[in-house]
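Lab channel / #folding
Pinned by the channel admin:
"Please post every new chain as: sequence first, then the structure tokens as a reply. Keep commentary short and put observations after the output so the thread stays searchable."

First post following the new format, from NK:
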Amino acid sequence: MTTMLLAETMNTARPRPLAGYFALGRLLEHLAPLTDLLLRLAVFRIFFWSGLAKLDDWSSTLLLFENEYNVPLLPHALAAALAASAELGASLLVLIGLLTRLAALPLLGIALVIQFVLGAADPAYNQLQHYLWMVLLLTLIARGPGAWSLDAWLERRSTPA
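Reply from TO:
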């Protein structure tokens, strides 16, 4: 017993140079709900305003999809309608944190098409911001919407006490 007490004393007396750093990390983890909300707000801002711009001048949107975007496999009018619907609907779901992982998937698809389909055809679409969008969306898909979301609220309500 004395040997055990001596060993514990020696372990606690050892300097821990990174203890403050790790303590700060634990303290900053309390900001996670806020950062998750800001992440969702950023994704909403990117895609929702793009969807509104498409609706604002639908005839120009149709022309853009017909002449410039050239989305493969889909008629241009259907591609435009799907893009606008996904940008508006899915971004709203992301903002409120409802079905967030599922809602982020079509937005990720849009970012992938912009970067790798349109970007392959026209260097003007090959931009760093599209990779940043993909990182934001993959973070939402992998981590979920965070504690301040309808997903988290629904999960708390459905989990037995």
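NK: The chain has eight helices and no strands.
TO: also worth noting, The chain has one domain: 33-158.
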